[in-house]
């Protein structure tokens, strides 16, 4: 009897132990796995400086996450130069899939983004069980999460309409802004900025006059003096622009030269090269709307300083942190690295990132996040970071919670 | 009024910079009959070399040494590469300069990186050259340097014209005069002019024509280098700077007439103004037709074309001029040879 009881007990114990072990095995199925992330962005041509900064950012942040993350996985970046071309991007996606990559990130240019969305959707349809997920960290055309939305696409930047929503909410309280001049690049992004600016200003500040609405060729204008003269003649007190790269740099430089004393409201003041051009001449006049300013507290702030110490360059694509935060949270929750299951987990996922709690909206896969309006000012004790070693940085004047910048979507998502 | 004046000055100054570039190109073309595709690359090298020299010896010495260095590079390229392919005809010559432009681009990116450089004008060239003050009811007045704040208050419009642009105009005009004197008033100029048209006869007289070619190629490159130094401080020093001016200087050379220095000057100013003035006009073809009494609206066939404003069409105007010129006057404004 005692013998039997003992026996029974030991069997129960053994069963319990093995059961525990099973649970432990299941819980850590993804632990120690290496997740390859394919990076498809320009490393040559006009946008090369931006792409180079971004791949360095990815590799740097991946190393930090490899030292410890909630999912216990390792990340490995596989960069491919797409030369900013949609055609090259499609080829890059094919080549990455052949190399066994199941997660793809891209950000520069909505044209390339659309090509990748298409390639990924087609691949997933034809190869069930071998799904690929596309994380878009910077392409901001609203169409990508509206009329052209796709289940396999997740956007971590705020789109043009969200940024304009935050910017115009801020303009509502700036009574000194009376005459706005729109100067943008002549391609999808610039046209969207111009369209949303007109639409939202009309709604929020109908008294604001739009005194000019110009589109100039993308990355071809060397001399912005004629545009600056035109802005001056229009009597504008504010210039609103979605320009990036050399188009913003040269514009600000020409404005400084001509003594054009107006406010500049921009989307991309921190992108490589621009801060150097801004310099002291633009202090207090250039504003930026984005998901961060130059002096982010906490983990990303430390990363930015370490990045500068290592590369003497700025870590400005903070959406890289969104990417890794979201992936590790989803992988820890789903206990797998299988893209099909992770995609399902990421839908509606709430996680903590550098700009507060954010949510990957289920209806259209657009990250709902807080946005900052910041102004270019001299670095001081409170805001010490020196962007591109200029001694200046973007300092927050206003933070908007995610609901302020949230915009509705017309996405009719087709789920597998 | 003040803005019209500023626009004119902007147009003329960018035209003069184009002249600095195209004068060398047109000289080289008239000598060797080859379009130097790498010409804009020498413009870029000028800016980059001057940037590096400025850090060591300061801007003003660099302004002189950088163009000389670029000229030496150009002469070296001519004597070692271009001359060798010369005997195979024009197409290999064209191809070798085409290849050089890519080599230069990559080398510049390897040496100086792909990001724009902080190449600022020296202390002496910073700030405005003069300020145009438009006071309501009182007309236009000019103040040297930056106008005081008191002058610009109370509805007065102040427009500054930067010193770098004034300097650009000054250097280009100086160059034009000295080039003209050199070509028409000196012995070297006579030999060069003779080599352009009758190389065999000049050679028979005992002049070293290949050496003249090398010198002209080198000087053309040096002029491009000088333009690069000034363009670099006025606009931007970055790897794409060659590509941006590359196509437009061919327009200048074709419109002005291949090989004609005076033509290049006229065309440069014309293109400079054509790049600047139309940008300020927001009227479209449809507006013009409507003003004449006709009614054109979205229902009219061809509306997408008619509604394009002059400002939107401005970037293509120089190229449109190029095409029209080739159709109706292939020898260019002041060119001498037919098509």
Description:
The complex is a heterodimer of chains A (416) and B (339). Chain A is of the alpha/beta class and 416 residues long. Chain A has 3 domains: 1-25; 34-158 and 297-368, 3-Layer(aba) Sandwich (Rossmann fold), CATH 3.40.50.2300; 161-290 and 371-404, Response regulator (Rossmann fold), CATH 3.40.50.2300. Helix content of chain A is 42%, strand content 20%. In chain A, the strands form 3 sheets. A 7-stranded mixed sheet of chain A has the order 7-6-8-9-10-14-15. A 5-stranded parallel sheet of chain A has the order 2-1-3-4-5, sandwiched between helices. In chain A, strands 11-12-13 form a 3-stranded antiparallel sheet. In chain A, a hairpin with a 2-residue loop joins strand 11 and strand 12. With 339 residues, chain B is mainly alpha-helical. In chain B, strands 2-1-3 form a 3-stranded antiparallel sheet. Chain B has a domain at 2-121 and 164-239. The interface between A and B is medium-sized, with 33 and 37 residues.
Indicate how many domains the architecture of chain A comprises.
3
Order of helices and strands of chain A: HEHEHEHEEHEHEHEHEHEHHHEEEEEH
State the oligomer: heterodimer
The helix/strand series of chain B, from N terminus to C terminus, equals: HHHHEEEHHHHHHHHHH
Backbone CA Rg of chain B: 22 Å
- Please state the structural category of chain B: mainly alpha
Shape of chain A: globular
Which strand order spans the largest sheet of chain B, edge to edge or round the barrel? Answer: 2-1-3
CATH topology of the largest domain in chain A: Rossmann fold
Q: What structural category arises from helix and sheet content of chain A?
A: alpha/beta
Strands of the widest sheet of chain A, in order across it, are 7-6-8-9-10-14-15
- The CATH architecture category of the largest domain in chain A equals 3-Layer(aba) Sandwich
Largest beta-sheet details of chain B: 3 strands, antiparallel
Unreliable runs of chain B: none
Helix content of chain B: 55-70%
Radius of gyration of chain A equals: 24 Å
Number of helices in the DSSP assignment of chain A: 13
The interface involving the most residues is between: A-B, 33 and 37 residues
Q: Characterize the overall form of chain B.
A: globular
Return residue spans of chain A where pLDDT drops below 50 for at least 5 consecutive residues: 19-26
């Amino acid at each position: 009897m005692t013998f039997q009881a003992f026996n029974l007990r030991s069997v129960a114990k053994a069963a319990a132990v093995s059961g525990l072990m099973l649970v432990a095995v299941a819980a850590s199925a993804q632990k120690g796995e290496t997740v390859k992330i394919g990076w498809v962005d320009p490393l040559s041509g006009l946008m090369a400086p931006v792409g180079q900064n971004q791949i360095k950012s990815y590799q740097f942040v991946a190393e930090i996450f490899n030292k410890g993350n909630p999912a216990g996985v390792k990340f490995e970046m596989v960069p491919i130069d797409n030369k900013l071309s949609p055609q090259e991007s499609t080829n890059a996606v094919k080549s990455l899939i052949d190399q066994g990559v199941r997660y793809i990130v891209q950000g520069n240019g909505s044209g390339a983004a659309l090509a990748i969305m298409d390639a990924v959707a087609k691949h997933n349809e034809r190869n069930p069980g071998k799904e690929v997920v596309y994380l878009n960290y910077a392409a901001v055309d609203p169409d990508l999460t509206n009329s052209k939305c796709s289940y396999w696409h997740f956007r971590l930047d705020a789109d043009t309409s969200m940024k304009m929503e935050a910017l115009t909410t801020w303009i509502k309280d700036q009574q000194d802004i009376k005459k706005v001049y729109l100067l943008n690049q002549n391609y999808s992004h610039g046209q969207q900025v111009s369209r949303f600016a007109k639409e939202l200003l009309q709604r929020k500040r109908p008294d604001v006059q739009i005194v000019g609405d110009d589109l100039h060729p993308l990355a071809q204008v060397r001399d912005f003096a004629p545009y600056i003269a035109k802005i001056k003649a229009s009597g504008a007190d504010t210039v609103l622009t979605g320009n990036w790269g050399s188009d913003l740099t040269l514009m600000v430089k020409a404005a400084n030269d001509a003594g054009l004393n107006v406010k500049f409201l921009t989307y991309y003041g921190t992108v490589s090269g621009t801060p150097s051009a801004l310099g002291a001449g633009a202090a207090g006049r250039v504003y930026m709307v984005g998901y961060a300013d130059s002096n982010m507290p906490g983990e990303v702030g430390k990363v930015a300083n370490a990045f500068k110490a290592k590369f003497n360059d700025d870590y400005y694509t903070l959406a890289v942190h969104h990417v890794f935060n979201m992936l590790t949270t989803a992988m820890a929750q789903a206990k797998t690295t299988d893209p099909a299951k992770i995609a399902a987990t990421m839908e509606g996922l709430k996680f903590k990132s550098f700009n507060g709690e954010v949510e990957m909206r289920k209806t259209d896969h657009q990250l709902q996040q807080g946005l900052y309006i910041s102004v270019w000012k001299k670095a001081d004790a409170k805001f010490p970071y020196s962007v591109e070693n200029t001694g200046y940085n973007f300092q927050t004047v206003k933070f908007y919670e995610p609901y302020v910048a949230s915009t509705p979507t017309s996405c009719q998502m087709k789920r597998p | 009024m003040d803005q019209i004046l500023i626009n004119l000055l902007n147009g003329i100054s960018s035209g003069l910079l184009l002249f600095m570039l195209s004068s060398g190109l047109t000289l080289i073309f008239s000598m060797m009959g080859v379009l130097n595709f790498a010409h804009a690359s020498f413009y870029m090298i000028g800016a980059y070399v001057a940037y590096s020299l400025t850090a060591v010896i300061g801007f003003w010495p660099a302004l002189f040494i950088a163009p000389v260095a670029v000229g030496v590079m150009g002469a070296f390229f001519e004597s070692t590469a271009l001359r060798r392919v010369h005997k195979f005809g024009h197409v290999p010559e064209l191809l070798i300069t085409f290849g050089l432009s890519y080599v230069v681009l990559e080398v510049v990116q390897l040496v100086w990186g792909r990001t724009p450089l902080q190449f600022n004008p020296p202390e002496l060239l910073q700030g405005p050259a003069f300020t145009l003050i438009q006071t309501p009811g009182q007309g236009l007045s000019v103040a040297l340097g930056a106008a005081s704040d008191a002058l610009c208050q109370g509805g007065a419009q102040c427009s500054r014209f930067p010193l770098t642009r004034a300097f650009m105009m000054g250097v280009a005009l100086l160059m034009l005069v000295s080039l003209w004197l050199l070509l028409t008033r000196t012995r070297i100029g006579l030999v060069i002019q003779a080599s352009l048209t009758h190389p065999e006869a000049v050679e028979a007289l005992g002049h070293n024509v290949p050496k003249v070619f090398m010198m002209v190629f080198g000087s053309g490159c040096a002029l491009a280098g000088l333009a690069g130094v000034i363009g670099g401080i006025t606009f931007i020093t970055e790897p794409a700077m060659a590509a941006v001016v590359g196509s437009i200087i061919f327009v200048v050379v074709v419109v002005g007439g291949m090989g004609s220095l005076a033509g290049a000057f006229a065309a440069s100013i014309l293109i400079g103004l054509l790049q600047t003035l139309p940008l300020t006009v927001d009227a479209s073809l449809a507006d013009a037709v409507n003003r004449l009494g006709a009614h054109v609206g979205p229902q009219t066939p061809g509306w997408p074309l008619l509604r394009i404003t002059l400002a939107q069409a401005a970037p293509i105007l120089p190229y449109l001029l190029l095409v029209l010129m080739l159709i109706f006057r292939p020898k260019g404004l002041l060119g001498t040879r037919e098509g």
